[in-house]
Design brief:
There is one protein chain. With 333 residues, the chain is an alpha+beta fold. Helix content is 16%, strand content 26%. It has one domain: Ribonuclease Z/Hydroxyacylglutathione hydrolase-like (Metallo-beta-lactamase, Chain A, 4-Layer Sandwich). Strands 2-20-1-5-6-7-8-11 form an 8-stranded mixed beta sheet. Strands 12-13-16-17-18-19 form a 6-stranded mixed beta sheet, with helices on one face. α5 runs parallel beside α6. The relative contact order is 0.18.
Length: 333
């Protein structure tokens, strides 16, 4: 059973800054616009570093951010002159996240807490680089108990693809303080909420039918991916900021659940992967985008697994709110 409506009264924050560390897209030629700062020669979210090159005049070339099939953002909460930093997801390659942090001149030592949206490897494996950089990092890591589950994807006519899964022993040996919960949980003095397991209420967000989990010594259907969880914050005078990893619970379900948990109706921003790519999910793009538009968010930045068809639909139906995601993009909310 979900908690009672309005159970989690978030402490409003003064502002939030969300920086994309890992995403499928890189575009260094997009300019700043309104609340959005871009990374690159025409943006202002950070200088472009240079690296040694054997073929460049002067021996140096630009060192661009890495885009990869994964997701990670740095969330900065600003409250009464104090900054708190949350790493939400970690991307797919062992070194992609930490190298992008270096390029953005963000020190991993300044991260206060890590939240992992779910156990899929394209949101987790960049933790490797954080461990190598920090050593035994006494950081809390917030996950759902099903995070450790073995999973595979079964496509018709193709050998099942078992997904890499995080090692509990490796994470604990690295010094992380693993916190598991199915229920919503406050972080940082009540200024941030992790949804835990998301209540499913829409008729069209029914899950990933090709997804299976290893349970009781056998592979079983696992369409709901119950460990999917999101972040929620409340910007004073503006509304909720909802950040998803893959949005396996359905982005509309997630936003509605955020409203239910907090008792706040206004939605300021919806950011992250909405998992609307591929033949299973493309049929629900119209219903999803229509329902998303009904929240009237100020900012919508789809990322990672949203897919180009859904991104184009969102841009067409919510042109004033739409922000094209890209590695290095910084939202000032």
């Amino acid at each position: 059973m979900p908690p009672a409506a309005g159970t989690f009264a978030l402490s409003p924050v003064d502002s939030i800054q969300v920086t994309t560390l890992i995403d499928n897209v890189s575009d260094v030629l997009m300019p700043d616009a309104g609340l959005v700062q871009r990374w690159g020669p025409v943006g202002t979210s950070g200088p472009i570093p240079r690296v040694e090159s054997l073929v460049a005049e002067g021996g140096k070339t630009a060192d661009f951010l890495r885009a990869e099939h994964g997701f990670s953002v740095l969330v900065e909460l600003h409250v009464a002159g104090r900054r708190r930093r949350i790493l939400f997801d970690a991307g797919v390659t062992p070194d992609g996240l930490v190298e992008n942090l270096d390029r953005l001149q963000i020190s991993p030592e300044t991260i206060d807490v890590i939240v992992l949206s779910h156990g899929h490897f394209d949101h987790v494996m960049g933790i490797d680089g954080i461990i190598r950089r920090l050593g035994r990092a006494q950081l809390p890591v917030i996950i759902h108990p099903e995070f450790w589950t073995r999973r595979r994807i079964v496509l018709p006519g193709v050998e099942p693809w078992e997904l890499p899964v995080a090692s509990r022993a490796a994470m604990e040996d690295a010094g992380f303080q693993i916190v598991e919960d199915t229920q919503p949980s406050f972080l940082l003095d009540g200024s941030l909420l992790v949804t835990g397991e998301v209540n499913r209420t829409t008729s069209f967000e029914t899950g990933f039918t090709l997804h299976q989990a290893w349970r009781d010594e056998a592979w079983e259907p696992d369409p709901l991916i119950l460990d999917d969880q999101a972040l929620i914050a409340h910007v004073a005078g503006k509304g909720l900021v909802v950040i998803t990893g893959c949005g396996h619970a359905g982005v509309v379900n997630i936003v509605r659940y955020a409203q239910w948990l907090t008792g706040v109706d206004g939605v300021h921003a919806v950011i992250g992967g909405f998992h609307l790519t591929g033949g299973i999910f493309e049929p629900i793009i119209p219903e999803t985008v229509t329902a998303l538009a009904e929240f009237s968010p100020t900012v919508v930045m789809p990322a990672h697994c949203t897919g180009w068809k859904a991104v184009h639909r969102i841009a067409a139906e919510m042109p004033a709110a739409f922000v094209q995601g890209s590695v290095g993009t910084r939202l000032n909310l």
